[in-house]
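Quick check before the chapter quiz. The format below is the same one you will see on the exam, so make sure you can read both the input and the output lines.
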Amino acid sequence: MPYVRTGAERLATDPALAGGARLGLITNPTGVLPDLTPTLDALPAAGLDLTALFGPEHGLRGTAQAAGAEADTVDERTGLPVYDTYLLSGRALDDVVAASGVDTLVFDIADAGARFYTYVWTMYDLMESAARLGLRFVVLDRPNPLGGTVEEGPPLDPAFAGFVGRFPLPLRHGRTVGELAGLFGFDLDLTVVRMEGWRRDMAYAETGLPWVMPSVNMPTPDTALVYPGTGLLEGTNFSEGRGTTRPFELVGAPYADERFAPALAALGLPGVRFREAWFTPMFHKHAGLPVRGVQLHVHDRDAFRPVLTGLSILHVARELYPGELNWKAEDLFLDDLWGSDALTRCLEAGGDPRELCPPPRHPEGRLLYS
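Here is the expected output.
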């Protein structure tokens, strides 16, 4: 089967695409060639002057859980300094980048296709630093695992900008990281090393590329497909399945009962079926407690609408368990995930949150691929 040539593979075979002399690579375990050679090994082998490494949330090696990172260190194999960038921005991030001594930043991390997945905001913040410091920025493009034909959900309200959204993208944005880099519009020397052979309608399995977990709770392409919807449950006391082997596909709560699965099935949502499931999270919400809920089974990838599905789960949970579903606690952040307070206001008023989701549409503007 033909496979997509990523930006990383192209750069490894044509080092002139990067330019620059002292390269700093922003990467994690997803930064690999099709044969699984890490980009951080492939670029020096191609003769490129790689002098520093930068890690995002979860870290360069991907060992940290959500909202965690790995400390600054020295990479044991390459001997290169590793700088943690997670949650750094502005002057603090500028200081780290300047201290590294690089003249070009190279980004090679796979995205998950949802606005609240943080890697694109690491790219955003580092692009902003590069613009202030006068550095070049190179993006090694990779497929969007959700494809590129559909965007879903409303754009971010700038008043709610933060590290799960800094630019008014819809929740399912339908773009590659290279397309996003151009869309952000920073005034800097930007190069996107495009993929070859990628089509917007491709399922990830059709790319011929290996799936490497983008983070510890994103084990499969199936996880990525449901994540823009069930990820919203992170902002509530409903379990999104963290602490299980099927995070974001298993959802539920200790207070859910036998009504939950039939109520979801009765909605007839496109492309997905719901199987009643019991599970016990090993960590995170409700750790060690039996949880009743459902597993999402997507049977038609093209018809499936993850954001609509996530809103429908919230709607049913609020209707069935109004005194127990909680999105108001201080450690919850549903407004940040949704990108405005419209969803929480709707839930509090007893409205139907599905009405907040505009019809799916095709991405527009600064698209690199037809």
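If your answer matched, good. The radius of gyration is 21 Å.
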